[in-house]
Structures
1.
Amino acid sequence: MTNAAEVAQLRARIEHAERTGRIGRSGRIAADAPVLPAAPELARLLPDRGLRTGGAYALGRSGALLTALLAAPSAAGIWCAVVGIPEFGVEAARDAGVDLARIAFVPDPGDRWLAVVGALAESISIVAVRPSGRVGDAEAARLAARLRERNAVLLVQGAWPLAEARLEIERREWTGLGAGHGLLERCTAGVRVTSRRTGAPRRGRIVLAGRPSVALGTRDVLPDLQDAQLTAVG
Amino acid sequence: MERCLVLWLPDWPVTALVRARGSTVPDDAPIAVLAGNAVVACSQAARRAGVRRGMRRRDAHARAPGLRIAAEDPGRDAREFLPVVDRVERLAPGLQIIRPGLAAIRIRGPARYYGGELPAAEELLGHLHAEGFAEAMAGIADGRFTAEQAARSAAPVRIVPVGEAAAFLGPIPVEALGDDDLARLLVQLGVRTLGEFAALGADHVLDRFGPPGAHLHALASGRDSRRVAPREPPPELAREVAFEPPLAIADQVAFGIRVAAEEFVAGLVARRLACTELRIELIGPDGGGSERVWAHTSSFDAAAIVDRVRWQLDGASADARSAEALAEGVATVRLAPEAVDPIGEHEPGLFGGVTDERVHHALSRVQAILGHRGVLTASVGGGRRLAERTVLTPWGDRPPARADAGRPWPGSLPPPLPPLVPRDPIPTAVEGEDGSPVRMMDRDRLGGRPARVRIDGAFRRIVEWAGPWPLIEHGWDPTAMRRAHRFQVVDETGSAWLLLLEDGGWSIEGGYD
């Protein structure tokens, strides 16, 4: 057994102990908190193979990534809100499978964004927000408690203390365009998911725009990820 | 096919007023009945002088100086109308009241008895004329809604032949639907007639206006009639309210059945049904009382049910037997659906339909923080520019029905579409290899190769690009015509952008990141 695999196994054990309540750690999410669905390509990179309710996830500014995260839950009838992101592309989201009838938009919360997010988290399962200011640890902890209590998920475009995982877009590759000709056709991008629960970042490729392709399978997933998955499940 | 006859006594509130006061009022007196400050009905003489429904009291007075004014009294309207219906019903059993002044009957039986639809209508009208209702009119058509419109079409008897409901309804203004909010919205959108409303896709209407809108849409399409036999309403939908001790005052009864009426409607909606005929039983403490079937041209909501109970109670006082049974008050009110219509096959969407109460509560709270326009719902509309294709509607408002959403828009952008769409294009700069700005040379030719684009204040190298694609708007109108060119570029970081070159200036219309 390699060192890396050993470490991963230990982490998994600690996590298991925490979840079953043998190790108390304040601020952790209950083990039986429901997990909201995610697209398969993203699910295999996320610590719980989906969005763990009660958790916060930090994203970059990618609108396509946010759209990809909202598609599966909204299509499953789960309510979502998009706060402080006035340029959210509604039509692209619809094309990506987002059910617009399940999305509420609060484009301009101004400096009331934290109050707005708190109010929405009462009954909306996924709240995506781009904070217009810094958030203190105390405020983040208060909101985290609200999220756990209400089984809601926070998606933050920006940094967030105590995030379950951080999702970042890495290399983007476009096809379809040339030097003065063509039409944007498809974009694949590397996604890196960093979580304090899974140790080493997991990497995979997703289709960020255009038709999904069958060619994107496990061969696009780096070997270290596969190891981590095998151990994290147990 | 349910052929239906509707009898209409025009200006009923005025007629009821005159009859209630005894015939001391001369026939040609200008009379107006007002609700609050607005005219709800007026006599022929007043109409000739220019008084109209909806007019304010002062304006009505100015038009007709000798105008006599009375306050609206739905109880009086019902009290005077119900005995008339009861007398006509002796000729043709099954006459149902839609509201005071308007009643409906399935015409098949009377038509067979009197030897045709027209003779039957003439027989009923003749009876009404003999009773002193010289202005009574009748309409016969497939379904009650169409028949009511036919009755209102100025001829004493108007018969819309089988299958021609849609053609007959086509030119009638949307106000005829009886839903003022919907009608106002439709008119704003340029949909002025029932025919134009019917031309909208049923799915779109259901999405935007929910089941009630879909039901009105079906009526406007003349599809009131498709129902071959009324569906047998499930008996468990009936509601019963008992009053202990019995209530003698109409207001108390009306208040007492409000919750039951709401539950009654909710139970129907949960089964995707609309109640078009409602049986109301008012039962006295010792049994007996008043039983009546009310009809509705579209469908009963809770307020409409409360009104009918009140009217029936008012009418009961005119009938000796009912009056006696209810002399001690009303002990039980029973509401039962007599006929129901299905209202749409699909799950209601966000709008007008059933929304999770808690979600609504949370969003309303955010509206309390940020204002009504602070929380929006989005849909995709028509247009060529990305930003204008996004239709944002404040939470709780009805989204505008847009006939243009499904239309092809030549020159609109092919997918994949940018997930980032600024509300207004962001000004930027594009320069060639030599650092000079890139411009259009003539109509559709670019004067140089775009090499760098300014993003977030710094220039990035363009690695791939395509364009220009002309974007012409209002091409039919030289004064309003706008002409721009679109480009797609991928910059050195792998980000792709949709750029716009208009009047020599570059801007970012969308980001593909």
2.
Amino acid sequence: MIRTVMVVEDDDAIRMVLRTNLEDEGYRVLEATTAEQGLLIVQDEQPDVVLVDLRLPGIHGLDLVRSLRATSQVPIIIVTAQTDSHDVVAGLEAGADDYVTKPFVAKELMARIRTQLRRSAQPEEGGEDLTCGPIELHPDSAEVMRNGEPVPVSRIEFYVLAELIGAKGRVLSRDHLLRKVWGYGNAGDGRVVDNLIYRLRNKIEDDPANPELLLTVRGFGYRMKA
Amino acid sequence: MRFGLRTRVAIAFGVLSLVIAAAVSIATYAFASYYLLNQREDAALTRALLDSRAVDASLAAGATPTEALEQIPAVGQSQALVRVSGTWYTAGVTVPPDALPEGLLDLAASEGGAQQRAEIGGEPYFVVAVQLTDAMYVEVFSLQDLDQTMTIGAWVLAAQTVAAGLIGVLIGRYTVGRLLRPLRRLTRGAQGIASGDLSTRIDETGDRDLDPIAGSFNEMAEAVQSRVQRERRFSANVSHELRSPLTTVVGTADLLDRRRDELPEREAGLIAVLVEQVHRMSQMLLDLLEISRIGGDDPLQIETVDVSLLCLDTVRVRNLPDDLVTGDAPIIRTDGRRFERIVGNLVENAQRHGGGVDSVRVERLASTVRVYVEDRGPGIDPDQLEKLFEPFSRGEDAHHTSGAGLGLAIAREQANLLNAELIVDNRDGGGARFIVEIPVTNDGDDL
């Protein structure tokens, strides 16, 4: 099955490098040079993963991420030359699942994309249902229920939740989650995890500011209430 | 030796108050002795006149000179003498009559009476002579007691003068302290700037003498800050603008590299060289960009960090065995990513230039934590120790190893930002030892 990757990038040369790399890996590539174009293509073509440059002419990449996230759970990876913390954090807060800084190592970017696609393609088959308080996970359908109501989650959110509930109250470090869920081979950025946890809390907690299910263990990582 | 400002001002105050106190003391002494002496002399004179009249009356009534003298009431320390027809009569022991000042008696004979201060037998006296009808009456008053009083007074005044000098020194010290207090604010401001907090300003307190200084200082700080900010913006733009073409160049080189098998052998060899150098240049540029931006707009992300775990992660991601990490497992508050960067750079440095990592040891101290990264190399020439942290310093093996030579410089800069110390020395058993010493707490918020 051929997977589709959309690249939203205004720099022609970088787009060419991305396209060639992606095509070498066997993906179908959709290109957009502006956020507006990107939004239209997503509606028409439903790509499997979206790569977004932050500094785009016209609508900013951050706003594109926000718009995409509002209507879809498609995995979004930010590809940015802006390396300041606040740019990265803003991108993650807007709803991106991961980020890569320019100049990226093609192999690493491909691994990031594979992680996002694998996770969204195959939920752990035949896995047992996982529950924690009012939260139920159905690995077969990759659905999350809260008090019997379905909660919309991205695939990466689903797998973080599955890891945490599967740990049965044990603490999982951010590095552990980065390796397990995001597939990082070397040190990743813990803020990717922090932001995803933040998003998850907004979806599953009664009061996200005072979490009762998804707890922070200072200095170590996160755990689910057993 | 040159004294400090405080000491000099204190001494000046001391000398000044000593001089003033001495002048006042001398005036006091002069006035007191003049006044007391005068009072005493007036009293003595009155007494002598009364006594002389009594003696005159007794003599007129036919008493002998001795009897006449004995009638005088014995009050105080005075001694009376009377000369009748050239012969001196006294009552009890007195000063010898020939010791009396001669001019005084002549003056009294011609004027009817005279008085004089005189020293007789080494002691101070006040002598009054009165010409009676047929005789010369002389009364001698000792001033010895007054002399003693004045001596004691002089000592007391001298002591006061010395005390005043000492108090002057103390006041001087205190005054300088007070005067320098605003200067200390200025010093603190300068220290703030020096330690990198360019937003440091000095409050203007409405003091006419000090505000101009504070104002100038603030203007200078403003200029420095805006200049640094301009440079940072420039650096950020350079960084951003360089990254895009760098991405293309590295990406294209990698794509070519992957197609090497499809190319003739000569071209494939050239591509290999190109790819290697492009990566080297890219890494160098990234390091340069990083070092130029350390301490820039990127704020610290303070979190709770398990130092032992962080060191473990650091060696793991570089495919080194866990058992390299030994020692304590302290929890500290710092920017974990930056701290990881420091330890990581030290580990990479040991791998590249130090014959491999021998150990990463964590040691908890009272208010700091130390991480020792020890290598298996030959150690470092003592002259070169400090130069290691300069950019592009790689010792003599520069041509044989990879890396841009910025790793240690970056580690040092990051350490400064975390209030940590980064030093290097040689171990006793050979090999170099890098030590990061980081405070346990750094202000900030949660994980």
